[in-house]
Specification:
Elements lengths: L1 H10 L12 E7 L5 H10 L14 E8 L2 E8 L10 H9 L2 E7 L3 H17 L7 E6 L11 H10 L3 E4 L8 H20 L1
Bound molecules: guanosine-5'-diphosphate.
The site of guanosine-5'-diphosphate (GDP) has 15 residues, from helix 2.
Subcellular location: Cell membrane
Protein name: GTP-binding protein
Function: Binds GTP saturably and exhibits a low intrinsic rate of GTP hydrolysis.
Length: 195
């Protein structure tokens, strides 16, 4: 549809990123296999939206969601794994978002240890910016193979000064709340800036 083009072009206008009323570009970060694609696809398919990819890309999902009575437009980018380690593509990912989800699997300690690393990389690329960043512990349905407790996940998020959400893409548990949370975090910062 033509609307997605206009959304993108208005966002890429100089100084347009993050402006009031703009589209929130959400970039998914995290180790391979943690559920980035699963979460992005759920987002793209949330009710009252036609699941569609943006342009030719199958890795960006755009939709509007109603949060606290106000519509918010989000584009979710599932492109992190296409980036070469620490190359320009990766830097591009770290520069393009105005919100980030750092995702790990609660069944995989290795993916959890990447969270701190990714956050430091992001904060190094975007110094002095108060970005909405949510740490996401996915696969909460896999109770028996859990390696990271809710308390431990929450503890790291507190230490890193981020929000923490546990989700199950498999059960669609907390997925809507996750993306609503992104919008709320974004608006909170917007209202602080405008004060
Ligand atoms: P990505 O590499 O981060 O994009 O991860 P994927 O979305 O491709 O998911 C990797 C595997 O984990 C797939 O087999 C998914 O079906 C599975 N998966 C993703 N999220 C969940 C979840 O919440 N619970 C369970 N049980 N499996 C999941």
């Amino acid at each position: 549809s033509g609307s997605s083009d206009s959304i993108i072009s208005s966002e890429s206008a100089p100084g347009g990123i993050g402006d009031l009323g703009g589209v929130i570009k959400v970039v998914l970060l995290g180790d391979s296999g943690v559920g980035k694609t699963a979460l992005a696809e759920i987002f793209g398919g949330l009710e009252d939206s036609l699941p569609h990819a943006l342009g030719d890309s199958e890795d960006a999902y755009e939709r509007k969601i109603l949060v606290d009575g106000e519509e918010g437009a989000l584009v979710v980018y599932d492109v992190w794994e296409q980036t070469d380690s620490r190359g320009w593509m990766q830097e591009n990912c770290l520069q393009m978002g105005n919100a980030y989800l750092i995702i790990f699997s609660v069944t995989d300690r290795r993916s959890f240890s990447k969270v701190t690393e990714l956050l430091l990389q992001l904060r190094t690329s975007r110094p002095n910016e108060d970005l909405p960043i949510i740490v996401v512990g996915n696969k909460s349905d896999l109770v028996r193979s859990r390696e990271i407790s809710l308390e431990e996940g929450r503890g790291v998020a507190v230490m890193l000064n981020c929000k923490y959400v546990e989700t199950s893409a498999a059960l669609h548990h907390n997925t809507r709340e996750l993306f609503e949370g992104v919008v709320r975090q974004f608006r909170l910062r917007r209202s602080r800036r405008d004060r």
